[in-house]
Design a protein that fits this description.
heterodimer, A: 319 residues, mainly alpha, ABC transporter involved in vitamin B12 uptake, BtuC, globular, B: 333 residues
Chain lengths: 319, 333
Amino acid sequence: MNASRFFPLGLALLLILSIANLVFGAVSLSLEQVWQGLSVGSEQHFTVYEYRLPRIFLAILVGAGLALSGALVQGVIRNPLASPDVLGVSHGAGLAAVFYMTYFAGASTDWLPEVALAGGLVAALILWWLCGAQSSAIKLAITGVALAAFWASCIDFLMLTKPLEINNALLWLTGSLWGRGWTQLQALLPWFLLVPVALGLSKYLNLLDLGDDSATSLGVSPQVLRLVSLAIAVALTAACVSICGPIGFLGLVAPHLTRKLVGGRHQALLPATMLTGACLLLAADLAARTIDPPIELPAGILTAIIGAPYFLWLLLRMK
Amino acid sequence: MNTPIKSLSLGILLCMGLVLLSWWNLFAWSVVPVTGLDVWHAVTAFDSQVIAQRIVIDLRLPRLLTALLVGAALAAAGTIMQGLTRNPLAAPSVLGVNAGAALGMALVSTLPAFYGAFSTSIAAMLGGGLAWLLVMLLGSAWRMGGNDQGRLVLAGVAISALCAALTKAVVIMEEDQAAGVMTWLAGSLADARWQSWSTFWPVALVGLIGALLLTPALNLLQLGEDNARNLGINLLRSKLLGSLLVLILVGATISTVGSIGFVGLIVPHIARLLMGQDFRLFLPVAMLLGAGLVTLADTLSRAITYPMETPAGAILALIGAPFFIYLVRKRTL
């Protein structure tokens, strides 16, 4: 499938999934009811407008953001196993946010994305310091996984030793879209100004695939390019994590899937990956809400159930 | 370089340290004041009228014994796994056995279709066994070079993540059972009583003795599979036996106290550092060290948020994860 067919199909899928997300749930509505629900005063207004609609937008943004950062990381360090969650950046951001919420209980949650960003950057720097630039794909992935395990155990420890503040943190941490609304959407939106910057980099990212020497002779500084791309990836991940908590494997699976469909040219790959990520998270959230209503599963659980076997398959195929 | 006298003195030293640690564990950080002397009296001349002595006998002693045996069992399981896979990063928690066992238990204790089909410990063994089988099958497909050892670990991590996600899903969907399941998922010794001890110790003891009997075969396996085969060792049988022992040890542990990670990873390395490469020497030392580590973690689990308790598993994870990173860094993968 080439890019010209991928985008219409992907957008159509996105639309269908969005409508399905509006219709199905603990209470299934008809299309007509959904339409009426969009206007104020209708019986379904709260369900449709305050509950399901912002959640759809959030799923699209978070899915797209995580997938894009995954594609950037994979493109820059040329490691098929890399993604912000495998490398421990998501959990580092998560730890910073949980720390902030438990120790500064009265503080405003408006700063959560920035705090998460600081945590994600620190996690990335520690990984860099531990591995250096020259380590193999496998070693980088194992160190990242080990670091992620460490951040996760710190999060567990904080939540177990501070049980009074646990509710807030736990709600946030599950990798779920439950209970998020327009406020969170507003907080997330400014961070997506980074997306055009990332897309603008795509031309240069292609040069990086030719090797560092060729890139340099073509007038691109590989080091600067790497730093900028990774910083954007970490920032997008941290912003998404600060809203939904770590959602595993999405940043790993979406770029791989997309690369299979549209090829590795970054101009097509980056936007296509965002579309794939958005569709995946919308589908995961839809399944999470409808498997066993009214109980909701965190969408992160479903992405892990799909993503972990995919990761195994990648490992099996790797040379 | 290890003379028998040196080994013996080290063993005696470790045993003495363990006894002291156990004694400390019996009285430290109790909400109702218990002194070291109360412990002595409770053991030598038990008087059921004294509350402190009742606490020691009814609550603390089963908890201590469970901690000791859990530590020994996990350390032995880790040692066997590292011996079988010849992979220094192998351990029940790293290669997915813990997560698989937890999933097995979550399935039998929450889903009506599985109610009473197996006891929880059998379910834990089956779940852990499936995960282990999967990892081993993947592992045997790869030649064990440096890269493939790393790949095995990543496969284990991915299987762990899958099992953990499924466990969470099962637990959330059966909400009325969730509280109980969540407690043992964190891995705490707070609920260890004589009743759970009585079902735990025979199984664990069988596993530990089996592990000690397996050590000569593990030694030969370190020479490489071809050499081991030439020396007349039945590879398949040793591997199956070793895996079975791991499952017995881990399954019994997890069904008693929940998922406690990283003991099986850390302890064999320290034991090897102390005793050299001979499994016959360092497996017993690993068991002693594991018992000590879990007992220490259990004591700390009462201290950190006194008078509340922190699950011992959370404390061990906090120590274990940096050690894991250190091991990864040290090796050329």
